[in-house]
Amino acid sequence: MSYLINWLFDTGGPTIQYRTLVELLDKPWDDPEVQTAWAMIPDYPSLAALLAAQRSEGYWIQRDFYIPKHSRSVAEKLAKNKRV
């Protein structure tokens, strides 16, 4: 299993690293590796670009033709909470 874990850490971004630590290696939330991986998630380039494009109301679309059922996105909820 160590080959798979190494592959996940080498090829995945911080979200994959976080989930690997928590879900596959059963590391607790207060583990320094878990905290570091969690802190790196919002700065990961693809996620940072996605969050930068998000409107302050929590959506990405133009609201003149469609009103979302929910006003908060998953990313916003995750940013306000400490855990997945």
Q: Biggest sheet, in brief? A: none
Residues in helix, % = 40-55%
Give the termini separation: 24 Å
**Radius of gyration over C-alpha positions, nearest whole angstrom:** 16 Å
Unreliable residue runs: none
Beta-strand percent range: under 5%
Coarse structural class = mainly alpha
Shape: elongated
**Topology pattern, helix = H, strand = E:** HHHHH
Count, helices: 5
Would you tell me the overall average pLDDT?
A: 81
Tally of discrete structural domains: 1
Q: Characterize the quaternary organization of these chains.
A: single chain
- What is the number of strand segments? 0
Search tags:
mainly alpha, 84 residues
Overview of this protein structure:
There is one protein chain. The protein has one domain (2-80). The chain is built from 5 helices and no strands. It has helices at residues 2-11, 14-24, 32-40, 45-53, 74-80. Helix 2 (14-24) runs antiparallel to helix 3. The two termini are 24 Å apart. 6% of the residues are buried.
Kindly summarize this structure in a few lines.
Helices cover 55% and strands 0% of the residues.
Layout of helices and strands:
Elements: H1 2-11, H2 14-24, H3 32-40, H4 45-53, H5 74-80
